[in-house]
């Protein structure tokens, strides 16, 4: 990998040198040939490894250096209380990809705005490709349930696309002098600025680097305001793009290294405001506006909702024109309306299909078609020779959309008031579109409708993003006006698996019998809910991996009911480790120790090779009476958190049943969990030589674990 990336960098460098000498093309060609050969070798080696489950072809070698040496982990004291969170491992972190796209795009723009390029044809092609990659990072953020980065990378991608194609139109078709007056009546950039401010506000509880990135995005969107004269705007845009490039380059490096190291090796700064404080401020605003102190515990906001509102708001703001007869303004506005309104909403439509919402992709798909038709007739009509006398097709289409949108209004009324208002505004806008085809449009009325639609979309984006990030309806979206009443039989759907109550002895016996027959069940722990399989049934442990979609290289730990069980197995454990475990068991700390034949004496049996790694095993004694009694009935249990791999932990038995119940034989129902994050994992394999290391910080802070260890060490030594 280092050779390939180094060769790519050198090849690009010699491509640039080729402007001054043809010999550089030969060197670049040789490097590119080497890249192809290495790439083919790597592909064949990995293919054979996948087939044979071992490396058949050698040559990958060892890392040139350990990224863990680049910095030191942040101390737990630098975190605000309540900020410990579990690493999301279902999908790779897309932040580095999104940040590198935010590095390359403004880098190209900086050269253009500083006058190194006279036209932007090639630049528009490059940025279109890069923005497509940034949409992929937005999509992967959606798959991880990350509403903030889904919105951020989606908005950034839209901005780069709009800017690039607007500059292409300006330099290729209009020219700078002719475009100056036309730009003064364009307002789409103001919505970009408002969205940038929203992202900044939502990042004040994140790290300092994230805030600085969003602040630079505010500067960039401010410089992009069309009312700034072009001679003064271009140096300002160049400076803003340079700042974005520098910050995004550092953010790329930091996010990539920190993701590999799974800790903050590269400093990104502390939080300006703790999440709890920001949530409290928004909660106070909710109380003041609604006159109610009750905040719903859940939210109806989905991850892509804010991006849906932003796309419509951008298109509506860009569609506002003070006059109809300015061909230059219409031509410049095509990217601002078509890209967010049509292409952006098709992206939202795609991820809405992925999410399987009840409304599905109907709304974004219909409105994408509407904005495409708007750009076709209202903005590109003079280029396509569509004018008075040949708009009958658009007239018929607008009437059809009026009828279609009436059904969308009825559907939206069963969701929330904000979505209902948006569909009503779109109905009025469709009437404006119809009047335009009939050559009877009152332009001030259209401007008012577009302004109202923009305001609705901005509030909808703000509320959706806030509610999605915090998982609560902190900003009101309004209740549904129509509710669909289902029959009692429909509401009382049969449970997908056996779900006994934990306070009943019969419930414990039911789950114990299932586990002893090789079943996988959801059980409560002293932290969050977990999946349990008996160590006597290795096929049940393998089933856990399939249920969670858990990577095979991620080991599963075991739970025992008390430390005396471990003493009876007589593992080769030092007095220091015994004393440390005496102080942390039972509780939310798991200890990784050396694996050996002694584990079979513990009752693990046939599951020996399925738990832990080849050399080590994590053992925990839970501080929950129900689970301890269950382990006494079944023997040691293989345990992992009860959530699809990478998703949030299950803190209630209802979450386990709804997400994994159809794959399980039973769930032991115990209500709310005691914690909202998983246990803290401590590596004790070298406790006598170099002490302990924190593998994962969970419900027990790392600082407290280290205090316990130091106290034990001083007493034993």
TrEMBL record:
Keyword Transmembrane: yes
Keyword field: Cytoplasm, Membrane, Transferase, Transmembrane, Transmembrane helix
Alphabetized GO MF terms: double-stranded RNA binding; L-threonylcarbamoyladenylate synthase; tRNA binding
GO biological processes: regulation of translational fidelity
Transmembrane segments: 28-48, 96-117, 123-143, 155-178, 184-204, 359-381, 393-411, 417-436, 443-461
Listed EC numbers: 2.7.7.87
CC annotations in GO: cytoplasm
SUPFAM superfamilies recorded: YrdC/RibB (SSF55821)
Annotated InterPro entries: DHBP_synth_RibB-like_a/b_dom, Sua5-like_dom, TC-AMP_synthase_SUA5
Compartments where located: Cytoplasm
Domain YrdC-like: 505-700
Highest taxon, organism lineage: Eukaryota
Pfam families in UniProt: Sua5_yciO_yrdC (PF01300)
Reaction equations catalysed: L-threonine + hydrogencarbonate + ATP = L-threonylcarbamoyladenylate + diphosphate + H2O
Similarity comment text for this entry: Belongs to the SUA5 family.
Protein's UniProt name: Threonylcarbamoyl-AMP synthase
Source species: Taeniopygia guttata (Zebra finch)
């Amino acid at each position: 990998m280092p050779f390939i990336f180094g060769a790519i960098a050198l090849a690009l460098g010699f491509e640039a040198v080729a402007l001054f000498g043809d010999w550089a093309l030969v060197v670049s060609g040789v490097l590119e040939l080497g890249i192809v050969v290495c790439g083919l070798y790597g592909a064949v080696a990995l293919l054979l490894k996948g087939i044979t489950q071992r490396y058949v072809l050698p040559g990958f070698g060892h890392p040139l250096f350990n990224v863990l040496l680049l910095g030191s982990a942040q101390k737990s004291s630098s975190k605000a209380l309540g900020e410990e969170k579990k690493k999301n491992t279902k999908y790779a972190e897309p932040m580095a990809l999104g940040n590198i796209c935010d590095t390359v795009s403004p880098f190209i723009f900086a050269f253009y705005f500083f006058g190194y390029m006279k036209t932007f044809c090639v630049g528009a092609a490059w940025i279109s490709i890069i923005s497509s990659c940034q949409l992929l990072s937005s999509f992967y953020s959606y798959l991880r349930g990350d509403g903030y980065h889904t919105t951020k990378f989606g908005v950034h991608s839209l901005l780069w696309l709009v800017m690039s194609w607007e500059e292409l139109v300006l330099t290729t078709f209009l020219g700078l002098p002719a475009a100056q007056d036309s730009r003064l009546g364009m307002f789409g950039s103001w919505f970009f600025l408002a969205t940038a401010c929203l992202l900044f506000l939502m990042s004040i509880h994140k790290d300092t680097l994230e805030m600085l990135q969003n602040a630079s995005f505010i500067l960039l969107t401010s410089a992009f305001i069309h009312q700034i004269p072009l001679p003064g705007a271009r140096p300002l845009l160049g400076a803003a793009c340079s700042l974005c490039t520098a910050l995004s380059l550092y953010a790329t490096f930091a996010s990539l290294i920190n993701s590999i190291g799974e800790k903050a090796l590269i400093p990104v700064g502390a939080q300006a405001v703790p999440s709890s404080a920001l949530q409290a401020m928004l909660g106070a605003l909710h109380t003041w506006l609604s006159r109610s102190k009750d905040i719903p515990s859940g939210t109806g906001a989905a991850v892509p909702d804010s991006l849906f509102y932003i796309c419509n708001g951008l298109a509506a703001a860009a569609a506002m024109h003070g006059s109809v007869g300015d061909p230059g303004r219409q031509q410049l506005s095509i990217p601002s309306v078509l890209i967010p309104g049509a292409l952006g909403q098709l992206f939202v439509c795609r991820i809405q299909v992925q999410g399987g919402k009840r409304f599905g992709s109907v709304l974004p798909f219909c409105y994408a078609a509407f904005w495409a038709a708007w750009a076709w007739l209202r903005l590109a009509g003079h280029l396509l020779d569509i004018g008075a006398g040949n708009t009958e097709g658009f007239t018929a289409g607008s009437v059809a959309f009026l009828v279609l949108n009436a059904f969308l209004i009825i559907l939206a009324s069963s969701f929330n008031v904000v979505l209902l208002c948006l569909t009503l505004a779109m109905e009025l806008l469709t009437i404006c579109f119809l009047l335009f085809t009939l050559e009877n449009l009152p332009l001030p009325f259209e401007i008012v409708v577009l302004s109202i639609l923009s305001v609705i979309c901005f509030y909808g984006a703000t509320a959706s993003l806030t509610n999605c990030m915090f998982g609560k309806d902190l900003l009101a979206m309004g209740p549904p006006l129509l509710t669909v009443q289902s029959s009692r039989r429909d509401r009382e759907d049969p449970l997908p698996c056996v779900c006994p109550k934990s306070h009943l002895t019969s419930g414990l016996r039911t789950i114990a019998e299932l586990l002893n027959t090789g079943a996988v069940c959801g059980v409560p722990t002293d932290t969050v809910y977990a999946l349990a399989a008996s160590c006597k049934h290795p096929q049940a442990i393998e089933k856990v991996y399939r249920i969670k979609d858990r990577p095979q290289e991620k080991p599963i730990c075991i739970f025992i009911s008390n430390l005396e069980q471990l003493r009876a197995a007589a593992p080769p454990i030092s007095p220091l480790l015994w004393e440390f475990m005496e102080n942390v068991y039972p509780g939310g700390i798991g200890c990784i120790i050396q694996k050996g034949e002694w584990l079979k004496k513990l009752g693990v049996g046939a599951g020996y090779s399925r738990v832990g790694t080849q050399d080590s095993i994590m053992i925990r004694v839970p501080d929950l009476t129900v689970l301890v009694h269950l382990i006494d009935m079944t023997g040691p249990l293989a345990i992992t958190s009860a959530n699809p791999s990478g998703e949030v932990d299950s803190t209630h038995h209802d979450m386990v049943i709804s997400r994994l119940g159809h794959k399980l034989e039973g769930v032991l129902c115990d209500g709310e969990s005691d914690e909202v994050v998983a246990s803290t994992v401590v590596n004790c394999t070298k406790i006598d030589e170099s002490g302990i290391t924190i593998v994962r910080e969970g419900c027990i802070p790392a600082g407290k674990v280290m205090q316990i260890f130091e106290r034990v060490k001083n007493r034993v030594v």
